[in-house]
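Hi V.,

You were right to ask for the full record rather than a summary. Here it is.
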Amino acid sequence: MRVAANGIEINVTVAGDGPAILLLHGFPHTWQVWSAVIPELARTRRVIAPDLRGLGGTTRASGGYDAGTLAEDARALLDALDIPAAEVMALDLGAPPAVLLALRHPERVTRLVVMEAVLGGLPGAEGFTPPWWFGFHQVPGLAEQVLAGREGEYLDFFLRAGTFDGSGVGGDLRDAFVTAYTGMESLRCAFAHYRAMSVTAGQIASEAPRRLPMPVTAIGARPVGDALHRQLQPIADDLDGHLIPGCGHIVPLDRPRALLAHL
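Predicted structure:
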């Protein structure tokens, strides 16, 4: 369904009953990156799985791709669904807005689970080198001009790299991801998330003096490892960290059972 929140229409999938859990995906995914874990989560929780701003079925907004605005998208979505507080679980590009939501509105987040991401320039991730595509995606207008018409081949690279054995993602799920990122406007919105990273880094740095009072779990795989856990150590009151062996970057698709074991 589509829900009006923070000035945009958010495409969101809702499943199950019980305490709410909000799932925030990354690139190049949609809410469907959680498809292997939603059925189990929905046995005991009300699962809220939106497409992020500009991605999937959500409004292709002209701006607002910094993590602070994405955090407000998430808060407004919870408001629109009449959910006072939720667990929040996030992957990749979804992790910075999840952390900002928890820092700015700790009463709305009962537990925070973040994986395979780094938080701007916070100390602790010095050993992680951003991959080449960060720079490519950040050059205004370049990536969409180069990639239009070749979206499938480009996304397959990320889907292969995001699985530990390099097998990638196939079938209907792969096709759904490709469809979601096909066309100049879809690509522009995807890369807008990267082009806002400097703004996001400043937002995280300014909020870092706050604390995360809720339980926080940092999950690492390949390639980020424990960098996120180390970044969160100075600001989280109740932090645990886990490295999932034999797991690629797309944790909820590559090792769903291992992820569920930590929830």
